[in-house]
Design a protein that fits this description.
It contains 18 helices and 14 strands. With about 525 residues, the protein is α/β, with parallel strands linked by helices. The strands form four sheets. Strands 5-4-3-11-12 form a five-stranded parallel β-sheet, sandwiched between helices. Helix 12 packs across helix 14 and helix 13 packs antiparallel against helix 14.
C-alpha cells in the first residue's frame, strides 16, 4: 500500500482514494505465445526459475543489466500480485569454460567455481538485486541429473553412444522446438540445417544435427561422475530442466522461466524439448520471459567476454558510477529490448537521480518546517494530481513492466514537486511517501544522495583549501602575523611573485563553480 492511512477528519475519504488499489492485474509478454497475457491469479504458488551464471569469471555489466531488470520484475510481482513467489536461480559450476580456466590458473574446478560464485552474489548485493529464494548448483544435483537422463533413455527420447555420450533424440520428440526460429517463421522444418541456425556443433556420434548432448563422456582428467552408461558429466541444457524438476517437486508445470534473449535458442528451446518429453506433456512452462542484451552503442556489438569488450561490475562501481545510476540506465529501455549502452545514457541517468534527490530534499526541508508555515493548508488539486501520477505509475508497471514509463512519471512528478513554492505538510508528506514507495519497487536506494553529500563535503574542503592558498598568494596573511601594514606596492609585488599560484586558484575556482549551485566569488585585489 502506497500511503499510510491518515486520520485527518476532513481528508478521510480523500485518503482512501490515495491508497493504491490491490486489484492491479499484471500483464506480461509471454515469449511462448508472443502475446501479452495476464499473470495467472488462480495458482496457489508461482514457481519461477531463472538461468544464472557460469562461474568462471566476474560478472560484467551486460549480465548485470539482465539481473537488474529481472529484479524489478520480481519486485513488481511481489508488490501487486497476491500469489506467493519462489524464485530459484541455477548456477553452472561444471562447464567447459570452467575446466579451461581452472587449467590455466592451476586451480581445481571446484575452487575456481566457488570463488566466482561468491563474487557473483557479492555483486548482486552491491547492485541491490534481491537474492534468489533457492540456489541450485550442477555439482549438487548430479544424482538427479542422472535420473532425468535415464528416464529420457527409457522413454526412447535419448540414446547412448559407444563412447558413453548421451544425446537427446530430436526425431523421437517429433515436433518443432517452441523457440526454433525456422519453425516460428513458418519455414519448412529442416532438422539437418540446425547448425546454420544455432551454435550447435556437429558431433560424429549424433544421429541428427538437431540432437543435443545430455551427458558428456569423460575426457582425460576432466571432472566426472560415474553413471550407468559410463563416467562423464552433464551437458548444458539438462541442468536447467533438472533444477526446474527439483523446484516443482516433480510436477510437470513450471509457472515462469526467465533468462537472456541470447539463451532463447538453442538453450531454452532444448530445455523445453527435453522437459516436455520427460513429462510427456505439451506444455511444461506456462510463461517465458526473455530479457534484452546489452550492446555498446559505439560498435553495436553485444557485451561479451568472448569479444573482450566488457566492463566488470566492480570496475563500473569503482570508476564509472553508482548502482542506482546503472539501474536507472538499465530501466530506461524496455526490459525486452536491446540496451544500447553509452556514457551519454549514464549521464542522463545521473540527471534523473539528481532530480528525484532534489525533490526529496525539498520534502525534507518542508517537513523540518524550514521555510514553510505550520498552518499551510492542503492543495486539493495537487493531491488529485498525486493520485493521477500514482495510478499512472502503477498502470505502467503492471502493463508488461513498462519501467521507462514509470520512471518518466516519477521524474516529471519530482520536477513539479521541486518547483512548488508553498507545498502543504499533507501534500509534502504524501508526495515523499509516493517517491520512496516508487523507488522501492524499482530497487533504487538513492545511494546517489549519500554520494552527493560526500561530494559536497569534499568540495567544501577543496574550496576552503583553495581560498587559504589564494589568501597566502595575495599576501593577506602578512596582516595577521604582527607585521606592519604592507603597502599597496608590497601586496602587488607579492602577488606578482605568486602569479602562477593565483592562476591555479582561478582554475580551482572555475572547477568548483562548474559543479556547485553556489558560485565561489573572489574579492577584488586591493
Amino acid at each position: 500500500m502506497l500511503f499510510s492511512s491518515l486520520t485527518f477528519k476532513s481528508t478521510s475519504s480523500f485518503s482512501k482514494r490515495l491508497t493504491r488499489s490491490s486489484h492491479n492485474v499484471i500483464k506480461l509478454f509471454n515469449s511462448l505465445s508472443e502475446k501479452v497475457e495476464p499473470l495467472d491469479t488462480d495458482a496457489p504458488l508461482i514457481t519461477w526459475y531463472s538461468c544464472g551464471p557460469t562461474v568462471y569469471d566476474d560478472m560484467h555489466i551486460g549480465h548485470a543489466a539482465s539481473f537488474i531488470r529481472q529484479d524489478c520484475i520480481r519486485r513488481v510481482i511481489n508488490r501487486y500480485h497476491t500469489t506467493p513467489v519462489v524464485l530459484a536461480l541455477g548456477v553452472t559450476d561444471v562447464d567447459d569454460k570452467i575446466i579451461a580456466r581452472a587449467k590455466m590458473t592451476g586451480q581445481s574446478e571446484k575452487q575456481l567455481a566457488q570463488k566466482f560464485e561468491r563474487r557473483f552474489f557479492q555483486d548482486l548485493d552491491r547492485l541491490n538485486v534481491l537474492q534468489p529464494d533457492v540456489v541450485f548448483r550442477v555439482s549438487d544435483v548430479i544424482p538427479q541429473v542422472i535420473r532425468f537422463v535415464s528416464s529420457l533413455i527409457d522413454k526412447g527420447h535419448a540414446y547412448v553412444t559407444k563412447s558413453g555420450n548421451v544425446f537427446f533424440d530430436s526425431e523421437s520428440y517429433n515436433r518443432p522446438g517452441k523457440f526454433d526460429p525456422a519453425a516460428r517463421s513458418g519455414q519448412q522444418l529442416d532438422r539437418e540445417n540446425v547448425v546454420a541456425r544455432s551454435p550447435t556443433k556437429f558431433h560424429p556420434e549424433k544421429r541428427k544435427r538437431a540432437d543435443f548432448a545430455l551427458w558428456k563422456a569423460k575426457v582425460a582428467d576432466e571432472v566426472s561422475w560415474i553413471c550407468p552408461w559410463g563416467e562423464g558429466r552433464p551437458g548444458w541444457h539438462i541442468e536447467c530442466s533438472t533444477f526446474c524438476d527439483l523446484l516443482t517437486e516433480g510436477k510437470s508445470k513450471l509457472t515462469l522461466h526467465s533468462g537472456g534473449m541470447d539463451l532463447k535458442f538453442p538453450h531454452h528451446n532444448n530445455e523445453i524439448c527435453q522437459s516436455e518429453a520427460y513429462y510427456s506433456t505439451d506444455q511444461w512452462a506456462q510463461y517465458f520471459i526473455h530479457l534484452g542484451t546489452l550492446c555498446l552503442s559505439e560498435t553495436g556489438h553485444k557485451m561479451s567476454k568472448s569479444l573482450g569488450n566488457f566492463v566488470t561490475v566492480s570496475d563500473f562501481l569503482a570508476k564509472m558510477g553508482t548502482s542506482d545510476e546503472f539501474r536507472v540506465t538499465s530501466l530506461r529501455r524496455s526490459y525486452r529490448s536491446t540496451l544500447m549502452y553509452s556514457n551519454e545514457d549514464l549521464i542522463e541517468s545521473k540527471k534523473i537521480l539528481r532530480t528525484i534527490s532534489y525533490a526529496l530534499s525539498v520534502c525534507d526541508e518542508v517537513l523540518d518546517f524550514k521555510g514553510v508555515s505550520k498552518t499551510s493548508q492542503p492543495d486539493w488539486s495537487s493531491l488529485e494530481d498525486l493520485q493521477k501520477v500514482s495510478s499512472s505509475f502503477d498502470e505502467a508497471l503492471c502493463n508488461d513492466f513498462n519501467f521507462p514509463a514509470a520512471l518518466e512519471s516519477l521524474t516529471e512528478f519530482s520536477e513539479k514537486l521541486a518547483g512548488n513554492v508553498s507545498p502543504s505538510i499533507i501534500e509534502t508528506s504524501l508526495s515523499r511517501q509516493f517517491i520512496w514507495s516508487s523507488l522501492g519497487v524499482l530497487g533504487i536506494e538513492m545511494a546517489v544522495g549519500q554520494r552527493q553529500t560526500n561530494e559536497k563535503l569534499l568540495l567544501g574542503e577543496l574550496e576552503r583549501f583553495r581560498n587559504s592558498v589564494r589568501t597566502f598568494a595575495l599576501g593577506k596573511h602578512l596582516k595577521l602575523v604582527g607585521w606592519a601594514k604592507p603597502s599597496k606596492e608590497d601586496l602587488q609585488r607579492h602577488s606578482m611573485q605568486n602569479k602562477e599560484l593565483l592562476k591555479e586558484c582561478d582554475r580551482a575556482r572555475d572547477f568548483i563553480n562548474s559543479l556547485t549551485l553556489t558560485p565561489v566569488a573572489d574579492d577584488k585585489i586591493s
